[in-house]
Amino acid sequence: MDDRIHQHASVLVDWSARITAGDNVVVNVAEGAHNLAVAVADVLGERGASLVMTYNSAEVSRAYLRGHETDFEPAPAHERALYDAADSVLILGGDRNTTATADVSGDTKQAAAQANKQIREARMSTDWVSTVHPTRALAQQAGMSYTQYQDFVYDAILRDWETLAEEMERLKRCLDDGSELRVVSDNGETDLTMSIEHRTAVNSAASVAYDSHNLPSGEVFTAPVETTVSGTVQFDVPMVIRDTRIRDAELTFEDGTVVDYDATAGVETLAQILNTDPGARRLGEVGIGMNRGIDQITNKILFDEKMGDTVHFAVGRAYDACLPANESGNESAVHVDLITDIGSGAQIEIDDEIIQRNGRFKWDPEFDPSGV
Amino acid sequence: MDDRIHQHASVLVDWSARITAGDNVVVNVAEGAHNLAVAVADVLGERGASLVMTYNSAEVSRAYLRGHETDFEPAPAHERALYDAADSVLILGGDRNTTATADVSGDTKQAAAQANKQIREARMSTDWVSTVHPTRALAQQAGMSYTQYQDFVYDAILRDWETLAEEMERLKRCLDDGSELRVVSDNGETDLTMSIEHRTAVNSAASVAYDSHNLPSGEVFTAPVETTVSGTVQFDVPMVIRDTRIRDAELTFEDGTVVDYDATAGVETLAQILNTDPGARRLGEVGIGMNRGIDQITNKILFDEKMGDTVHFAVGRAYDACLPANESGNESAVHVDLITDIGSGAQIEIDDEIIQRNGRFKWDPEFDPSGV
């Protein structure tokens, strides 16, 4: 077995989920994640944790959902009991076919997701971590060979997380202490400002110890004060959203609301998203990608939004973790991330101080605030 | 997908496990049983049951067991909670390598099995059914091509269970009403008698409605009064027991105890079994195979002991279900089945009446009590 699979398992169990002797762990295995499951079981055995392994097969789900004719039971007692008594849940993704449920109706999927809410919440109230094992289907979705995709995934996952967490902590402090955030590009396509006063940034360091539940992670994000967003942003990183490629999306904000939008591809999908509800025209999140192991888009948001040298803005729902205790942030049924490359000819400013220029933070030796 | 997989799923869910709307079902999927899991999910969806699917991978178990260094937790709370709240457990066997745990020490396996006792009991207190999906590894163990093995498995499983259950009920009544059972072969190799007075036979009709938990099943078995077994039996059906081929084993009983034994192959293993404890030298079970879909040995006891035209005797532990309420039967740490072909030149007698001759029961049109 590829030694990187073992390393992945160790990072997941030790750094991300912080599992120790006696922990009751549920490991959720996708169809294509068998080899990672074996490596994870090895580490869990070494740590003296107890293990229940569940099988998360898209083909099984498709069959069950298509067969089902009546209402879905909201919280089956046995499933609820399993997660209520679990300390940690490790979700090992790894599709064998990313479109395996394409012929299940949207209504059925929505009804099942709705019914599954309590179970999802029970799972989310454990120390859960979601990761992914590289499969051929995911390589295909990323437009890569299998070997190329494996290299990509392990570059993203096998980081020096401790050092990265420290660097991200610096950025978090800048955001927490700052009042106004501005992202601006030299070519004039992007110039967006927003208040981030009294908001708390999340250092998403791929560990439950940082309230971060994705492996890989590597982003610092916060919620803007949604009524203060003003200016224009161009998303020059192409993405596939709702099965549609969106290219060069551009949003213009006035008083926090999108007043103009465009794209060179996928503009109908963009419109559909923005018209979901009033909150869908306001920003819920601004995140700065800091995982330099991720250097290209692979059409999987788990990776895309953490790409180094990028900033992403999400229209829609804000995360509670970023908000003051008694305040509710932007509300919406959607949360859609769009990404801008800021690796060259762009900068991030906080209260008029340049904190990143051409992808280099002010604490980097290569930082040059006047560089081109 | 082979339509027989769908038929298998329907038999399992409807005939064997009797699952209805609202049931909380755990489906335990072996590495090689994915396709059966998909078909079972389809039927469970149709019935409106709720589903948790667990992954039973021998390679995962091997990794976990080899990694583990301390004592095993006897009953992890999350696993216990899952089974306590389950109505049914469907165990879908299907190894990809029947020797996948060959390099786990016997001590470790035994310690894990010992710790797992409460979980096993919680599972056994549901309406559980164990079945198997044909895999290449199981075909290999049976010495068959994959296609040949698939045909074999579905011949065994896709029976007219209702009709077979009625026929087996007739045999059960003969055994329940009888006092003395004799199995005798024309060639004189086998002539064994035993009391079955006050013992209750089990009609193992592959359904929880018959307290039968294997699919396929198709045997009627009871427990002899262990001190009354007398005579000799030759087991002419070769079997692999404890990784050793045993051929032409022969046991001679006096006053219920084996006083002489032999075999043309595997005699050391036979000795090892018989010397486990005093109960290992007495009979715990006599069973009559009635599944005519099973016509050869495949080195998997789930199938072997149900083969039509055979009788099997198990040395060791007796099943409680066969015993009078306040009586405990033969006690032993082992329960090892050995099989004799009685399809020709042999008969079964109850209280001196021939109830089967040359594989035909007294109610069969072809029954000929004096046939050769």
Automatic annotation (TrEMBL), chains A, B:
Enzyme Commission code: 3.4.11.-
Any Pfam family matching the protein: Peptidase_M29
Top-rank taxon: Archaea
Cofactor needs: Zn(2+); Mg(2+); Co(2+)
GO MF term list: aminopeptidase activity; metal ion binding; metallopeptidase activity
Record keywords, A-Z: Aminopeptidase, Hydrolase, Metal-binding, Metalloprotease, Protease
GO biological process, any: proteolysis
Family listed: Belongs to the peptidase M29 family.
Protein name: Aminopeptidase (Homolog to leucyl aminopeptidase / aminopeptidase T)
Origin species: Haloquadratum walsbyi (strain DSM 16790 / HBSQ001)
Encoding gene, per UniProt annotation: pepB1
